[in-house]
Amino acid sequence: MINKNQILEIFKSTDALLEGHFVLTSGRHSSNYFQCAKVLQHPEYLTAFSVIIADEFESIQPDVVISPAIGGIVLGTEVGTQLGCRTIFAERKDGKMVIRRGFEIKADEKVLVVEDVITTGGSVKEVMDIVSETGGNIIGIGVLVDRSNGKANLHQNQYSIVKMDAVSYEENEIPEDLAAIPIQKPGSRFSL
């Protein structure tokens, strides 16, 4: 099993752990940002992280894996591959998370939600709401990096490979040294 320090070194070595002044998808400001796409582009890391998550949920045998677009799609697809089940994603349309493209979740299907990074868990919560509306049965949440260090507890069967307390700030509480750095908005919510 890969430990937290090894994972952070993998993130650093692939330039996936960025430093600067970032506005996260949650709207909070932080001096660091996990750009999981940069680490997940490497098949050996994508597979390793996906196997870890899949192993956590294999005994429950999900019918479908769903991820919020864009960040969770690559990881969710590979987790679904490891579990041998369907993989779909939810995406934003007019600012609201929806299931499109002919994807569907049938009533009582066992659904695993997979996301690359959570801070507040807002996108995952939106996906969970959609799944509940369809009558799907959420059996768990799998996450690569939990920046809330477990504070974003969204489901009784939630698993994160890495939990860390990454400091973030509301707009009105940004420290002066961070405020002096130009803002970057790398989150997927801003790219749609």
- The rough form would be described as globular
Class by alpha and beta content: alpha/beta
- Overall domain count: 1
CATH class categorisation: Alpha Beta
CATH topology: Rossmann fold
Estimate the mean pLDDT confidence. 91
Q: How much helical structure, as a percent, in the residues?
A: 25-40%
Strand order of the largest sheet: 5-4-3-6-7-8
What is the chain-wise order of helices and strands? HEEHHEHEEEHEEEHE
Sketch the major β-sheet: 6 strands, mixed
The total count of strands amounts to 10
| Architecture (CATH level 2) name | 3-Layer(aba) Sandwich
Number of helices: 6
Give the low-confidence spans.
none
Radius of gyration: 16 Å
Distance between the termini: 35 Å
Percentage beta strand: 25-35%
Structure characterization notes:
The chain has 192 residues and is α/β, with parallel strands linked by helices. It is 30% helix and 30% strand. It has one domain (19-190): Rossmann fold (3-Layer(aba) Sandwich). The chain has helices at residues 4-13, 36-40, 43-57, 73-83, 122-134, 176-179, and strands at 17-23, 29-34, 64-68, 86-93, 96-98, 110-118, 137-146, 158-163, 168-169, 183-184. The chain has a 6-stranded mixed β-sheet, sandwiched between helices. It has a 4-stranded mixed β-sheet with strand order 9-2-1-10. 39% of the residues are buried. The mean pLDDT is 91.
List its traits:
6 helices; 192 residues; alpha/beta; four-stranded mixed β-sheet; globular; single chain
